[in-house]
Specification:
760 residues; alpha+beta; 12 helices; 18% helix; globular
Length: 760
């Protein structure tokens, strides 16, 4: 199902007098719905597009009864549609000059702007298998030789475009460019009729512009449109894959967005939550249940190619391992490893990063080998050089990290953290070790990260690295969910800004019965963070409030840290934090003891408090309340609850009359007060309640709704309510008070949509 999903948030395209429009969405999967689109070709599995702007859009399903323009087949022996495209499938072209007409569109002669003096954009996504020779990408007519049409092609380390006029002019623009093989690039050529200028763009960056004065009106030609080949004569075609071809009757101005919407913290705004090395259905399941990323994966570049493409399909971020060829074979135990030269490290790092640096799904760079030793000069030299080259090469400034082993303290981590943007030390407590019930270790581990960051790199971000690799001991399976939630929330309470779990590899030999229990235990935290409860911005952006204290009235007064050996710290059994976010205050607390503990909190807001896990509301007289924690229990309270909102909306007489009750609907618009409270709407204004509209344009469906500020919105899609698989189209989008739109461009026999709103 996910292979078929292409969702886009509708964008506003501003048309200027010169025929130029801003276009900064080249990073995301566009769908050709913009009004200026003349033709759009996306070769995706079981997906059919019908462009509302023209009749000439096409698609290539993998179904045998459909061809890419309904009437024109390709020669599958040479040019074929198959896996490997931007969203699953792509048009594969083998190069050479023997397929001049076999990758052409039947109605291509009509694909041209209708204006007398038209502007034009020709763009595509392309992956080169070879960078040798001449390779045509998009070609219509005879622009290269003159007499109308347009061409976009690669020619021996140069990118070229041509627009032909009605005379004998051939308006050719050229720029030096050596593409990376095996990497998707966005390539575009534009003609602006307002200033008679041609431009070439690669990956959103303008590489060259050229003005053609005098008679320079591009002319229509009756020739067909060819993709991956020239439309006339036997010139060489693309040796690679082409996808997302779009012809538009406007000269777009492309630009690089600062970051894609899915980018995760500290690069972007989404909370990072991921499992190492999930495969297949497990990756999809994780994303459906709150994971924002997948990976990292082991196995070098080859081992990451498939999961990186899968991240694109899932709409997830990716942690990319920077593994250099010269370092294969290195291990901590190796005694005869020959270290590569600094020049080799620099060159290989540039090559590895450059090959994927324009992939928007990558949110961070993960150094390999892991656990490099801070006391070894060669290994520290490696970290210093590679991290610096990554920063110099990556145009988007994504963070660098390296997994650090469990036992390293703040002093050790302080040596390596200056070269990293994420401090990621293991918070591993094996569920078969003698220390498995000594969960206070999670607090000690986070303290080491925080201490190293304070001492050596205050710009670094603390990460929570959790353990998932072995079945629980017999008879202790019932602890799994509590362990998962305790360790994750301990890290969050201590200041962790992202969560990675090692690992999601289900085929591991140490799993017999408990993989799913651990998987679901950790994913319950992912859901709390990134789905309904929306805790993520509170932990990422909330500020810690002071003045809260607590006293223990029942249970152990302190816990001894007995892991690792030699550490004899003691800690209180309950760890807590009071966070303020968007005017709300939240108290999170976790009990690390194996016994129940009763505590009395003081110094919290004197307001109604809502138990965010139980849904209960209680008063907090004098800013004090008591709570009994079960072993390993996690609690979350928000202060200023329903009653406070009710008092701000209704008069005392209305409250006495029952109009302010949670289930009441005083304005008669079908939304109860409780729903209006959650949605941020007006309970006494008829029609002001959270509602969703669904509109149709050919085969596209647009979900729209009014938003409220200080609320967060999620839109999900399902094609089968029986199975209950909901796929997020948009997750936790902040409201602004304006209308919000999400367009689904898939053609499904059945499609169901649900929208959700929640409070911060």
């Amino acid at each position: 199902m996910l292979n078929n999903l292409k969702n886009t948030v509708c964008c506003l395209v501003i048309s200027l007098a010169t025929g130029v429009a801003a276009q900064s969405d080249w990073w995301s999967g566009y769908d050709g719905t913009c009004a200026d689109t003349i033709a759009y070709y996306s070769f995706d599995e079981s997906t059919v597009y019908a462009n509302g702007a023209s009749l000439y859009s096409a698609v290539v399903p993998d179904q045998p009864d459909k061809t890419w323009d309904a009437f024109y087949s390709t020669n599958t022996a040479t040019c074929f549609f198959g896996p490997g495209g931007r969203q699953g499938f792509g048009l594969h072209v083998p190069g050479g000059s023997d397929i001049a007409s076999k990758c052409s569109t039947r109605n291509g002669s009509n694909i041209f702007p209708a204006a007398t003096d038209p502007s034009l954009t020709v763009e595509c996504r392309v992956l080169f298998n070879s960078v040798a020779g001449i390779q045509f990408l998009v070609s219509k007519g005879n622009a290269w030789s003159s007499k109308g049409g347009y061409d976009l092609w690669y020619d021996n380390n140069a990118l070229k475009c041509a627009f032909g006029d009605s005379d004998t002019n051939k308006m050719i623009t050229t720029v030096s460019w050596l593409p990376s093989t095996g990497v998707w690039h966005h390539v575009a050529s534009t003609w602006n009729a307002g200033d008679d200028t041609a431009r070439l763009y690669v990956d959103g960056e303008e590489l060259v512009s050229k003005v053609f004065s005098g008679k320079s009106i591009i002319d229509h030609t009756g020739r067909t449109l060819a993709l991956g080949q020239r439309s006339v004569s036997l010139y060489t075609g693309l040796n690679g894959i082409i996808d997302d071809v779009r012809i538009s009757g406007v000269a777009y101005e492309f630009s690089r967005p600062e970051k894609p919407a899915r980018a995760t913290y500290p690069w972007g705004d989404k909370f990072w939550f991921s499992f190492y090395s999930t495969i297949g259905d497990d990756s999809q399941y994780a994303v459906e249940h709150g994971s924002s990323g997948i990976g990292p994966y082991y196995g070098g570049i080859a081992g990451q190619a498939g999961p990186l493409a899968e991240a694109d399909v899932l709409g997830a971020s990716f942690s990319y391992k920077v593994q250099l060829p010269s370092m294969i074979g290195f291990s901590a135990q190796a005694t005869n490893f020959v270290w590569p030269s600094d020049e080799t490290l620099i060159a290989e790092t540039k090559a590895v990063v450059s090959a994927v640096m324009h992939n928007p799904n990558i949110s961070m760079w993960d150094l390999v080998p892991e656990e490099l030793r801070y006391w070894r000069s060669n290994e520290m030299n490696f970290i210093e050089i590679v991290s610096e080259v990554i920063r110099q090469t990556d145009p988007y400034g994504r963070p660098v990290m390296m997994y650090e082993p469990n036992h390293r303290n703040a002093t050790a981590l302080a040596v390596t953290v200056p070269y990293q943007d994420i401090c990621a030390s293991g918070t591993y407590i094996s569920t078969t070790s003698p220390f498995r019930h000594n969960r206070i270790w999670a607090r000690w581990s986070m303290e080491q990260e925080l201490g190293a960051i304070a001492a050596a790199n205050t710009n670094a971000v603390p990460w929570i690295m959790l353990w998932m690799a072995v079945d629980a001991m017999d008879g202790e399976e019932h602890w799994i969910n509590d362990w998962c939630r305790h360790d994750a929330y301990m890290g969050l309470i201590m200041g962790g800004k992202g969560i990675s779990i090692w690992s999601g590899w289900r085929p591991r030999s140490s799993w017999t019965n408990d993989f799913q229990a651990y998987f679901d235990g950790y994913l319950s935290v992912a859901a709390d963070l990134n789905l309904d409860k929306n805790f993520a911005p509170v932990f990422m952006d909330g500020t810690e409030a002071t003045g809260v204290t607590y006293s223990i009235t029942a249970g152990p007064a302190e816990l001894e840290l007995v892991y690792p050996a030699g550490v004899t710290n003691t800690y209180p059994p309950v760890t807590y934090t009071l966070r303020e976010y968007l005017g709300q205050q939240y108290l999170f607390a976790v009990n690390s003891a194996t016994q129940a503990v009763t505590v009395t909190f003081s110094g919290v807001p004197d307001a109604m408090r809502t138990d965010l896990f139980q849904g209960l509301e209680n008063s907090t007289p004098g800013g004090s309340f008591s709570k009994t924690f079960a072993p390993y229990e996690v609690t979350a309270f928000r202060f200023d609850g329903y009653e406070t909102w009710r008092d701000s909306q209704f008069t005392q007489q209305q409250i006495d009359d029952g109009l302010g009750d949670p289930d009441a609907d005083p304005d008669g618009d079908g939304c109860a007060n409780r729903d209006e409270y959650i949605a941020g709407t007006e309970p006494l204004v008829f029609g002001d309640c959270f509602a969703t509209d669904l509109s149709f344009s050919n085969d596209w469906k647009t979900v729209s709704f009014q938003t409220s500020s200080n609320r967060f919105y999620t839109v999900d899609l399902s094609t089968n309510l029986v199975e209950g698989h909901w796929v997020p189209m948009v997750g936790n989008e902040p409201g602004t008070g304006a209308d919000f739109f999400v367009t689904d461009t898939n053609v499904f026999p059945n499609a169901f949509y649900r929208t959700r709103v929640n409070r911060p």
